[in-house]
Design brief:
Elements lengths: L1 E3 L14 E3 L15 H4 L8 E2 L1 H14 L4 E4 L7 H4 L12 E5 L2 H14 L4 E5 L8 E5 L11 E4 L1
Parallel strand pairs: 6-8
Antiparallel strand pairs: 1-2, 2-3, 4-5, 5-7, 6-7
């Protein structure tokens, strides 16, 4: 079942209560029909924690794009190796970030939609190298002592 998150996994989370979605069968496909539990669950722990407001924004971007969006990374538990390599866990560990596999015109359109809508606070662009490794990072992580928001960067 989809349960409100009760563990203190997501520090500083002050938005609508995050949801811990226990299994693929519990994914709220009526609310987020273009995404799956598998796309948003942690590849390290298999936990799937989502922020409903962030997910609504990603779904709205997808609706405007009118095209498929492949999610390469959604939620990451703070123990995920990519989070362990940071000074402190980032937006993925708070269910406020997503990486979308894309390049070229699709990457441009997603960026354009996100900027126009105005709710995405962080955009990371990785568009060099092999096409199958290119992606966009979108997040709604607020400003912290590590940096201000909104912000855009390249990898």
């Amino acid at each position: 079942a989809t349960l409100p998150l009760t563990e203190n996994v997501m520090t500083e989370h002050t938005r609508e209560q995050a949801l811990n979605i226990r299994s693929p069968e519990d994914w709220p496909s009526e609310r987020w029909p273009n995404f799956t539990w598998e796309e948003f669950s942690c590849k390290h722990t298999k936990e799937c924690i989502v922020d409903p407001e962030f997910m609504d924004e990603i779904q709205a971007i997808r609706n405007e794009l009118c095209d498929y969006m492949t999610i390469s990374s959604g939620y990451r538990h703070p123990d995920h190796p990519d989070e362990q390599n940071k000074r402190e866990p980032g937006g993925h560990s708070r269910a406020l970030a997503v990486d979308i596999k894309c390049y070229g015109m699709t990457a441009f359109l997603i960026t354009q939609i996100a900027l126009r809508r105005g709710n995405i606070l962080g955009i990371g662009i990785s568009q060099a190298g092999p096409r199958d490794k290119r992606f966009l990072h979108l997040d709604m992580k607020p400003s912290t002592h590590l940096g201000p928001r909104p912000w855009i960067w390249s990898y």
